[in-house]
Design brief:
single chain, 543 residues, alpha+beta, 17% strand
Amino acid sequence: MPPQKPTVACESCGKPFKLTGIGPHRKSCIKKHHREQEDLTYLGSIREAVSSTSGSHGPSEVGGSVVGSSTLLGADAHHDDTGEIWPIHTDPDPTTMNIADNSEANIADGVAANNIDDIRVKYHPNAGIPPQEIPFAEFARGHWPRAYKPDVSTDPWYPFRSRLDFEFAELALEAALNKEQVNRLLRLMKSIRSAGEVFTLNEYNDLQSTWRAASHHMTAFTKEVVCINSMDGEPQEFTMYYRSLWDWACGLLKHPSIGPHFVFDAQRLFKFDGSSFIRFIDEPWTANKFWNIQSQLPPDGKVLPFILYADKAKLSSFGRQKGYPVVARLANLPMSIRNGEGIRGGQVVGWLPIVKETKEHSGKTRFANFKNAVWHESFRKLLQMIEKESQMGCWVNCWDGIPHRFFPIVLILSADYEEQAVMALIRGVKSNFPCPICLIPRDHISDFPAQCELRTTENVLKVLEDARSQDTQEKKEQILIQQGLRDVDSAFTVVANTDVYRALSWDRLHANFSGKFGDHLWTELLRILDKAGCQTMATVEKK
């Protein structure tokens, strides 16, 4: 029997270790022991502070938490296991809560009962769910992107009769094969296919009929003709295509693989920093807007928030063919899913008409107003698909068979400045008030004033009503110019609980990456490298 190797006990924990392993353990054990002692010391100081102030009649601050007597605390006080009293300091009006006000999170179990980085989740009162405290590791695991699990009740390639049929159809679409090319390829494949693989397509008509069957599993497009009076008063027609936003959303709510990922109730998240809970936002349902809107709904109402993106795009490499797609996402799906691919991610829900611009009308106010009118009338067709539901709510049996009453809204509008100007009815960068969100004068944009009047749908409608009541075109224009507005009816007024000026946000892509960096910083960097010489330029390119 080989001799037993000698061991030595750790001075901190007393556990035996071999001589070769005691060194690394001793370092980590000493650090752990010191941290525990610091925590105990901190806990003792808090308890002493609470004991010394428990008989006072006024609150005092200790360690970043508000402490007061039981007389002041009343029903909002909490007694922990040690008999100590910790106050609940809440904002009486949740709609006015600022993200920096984290005092309402420092409640209940006492600071000492939490570990650093613990997460507190406060649900909207209508949800009927009590607050939860979650260790950070468990919270982080719950926010990891979860694998998408397809429906196993049918083959993933249904209604295609085999996987090979589906892959062939996918290739035919990607390659844009015509009927003759598809038939030639099918004849070739049938002559060389193996006996073990199922391949049922024999001609183009088989493929076309299967495509048609597959299309019924998606919300179909509707063709609509938009009629707008042109500048000379004659009606002019434009064609647009759109999907029903409501039908598309209901399809996701009923999908057995996507449905379980939905979050229907607003939440507020807080992270413990060692002395207090600090609020943070990581998803749309954790922000103030979602919470405030749910507070305005009936107790059984759930917010169904849409994220809409619109931008003109080139459809060909030569730029001759252009399209104007509208892409929709649902904001109560986690970011990893709504920004993913396939039916769970963004879907094209509309194609807006593009008004051709001629030299005769280019740059004229009347023509710009006409283009804006065409845009809003077309977008209104799309939003009318959720108009009634946004006002009254609509019950939907979801994936789990449980009905919910949903109120659709437009929560976020994603667009560059050109589209934002159209959405906000403003006259653009050269107007006196070029910001789509606030009324900051153009000459004062670089001053970044602390206070600036915000645009609201209500105020804009009042200005338009006032302008239209004038007896001359000149007086009307003067009123509109004072706020940089166009005389156009907004499409977004048909959706309840939606304010276009709160849905718009800073265009980071074009302002920072394409603007500051692409047009300024990148140009300046190239100039500096050019002066530094070819060797420096080569080094930068290599790295």
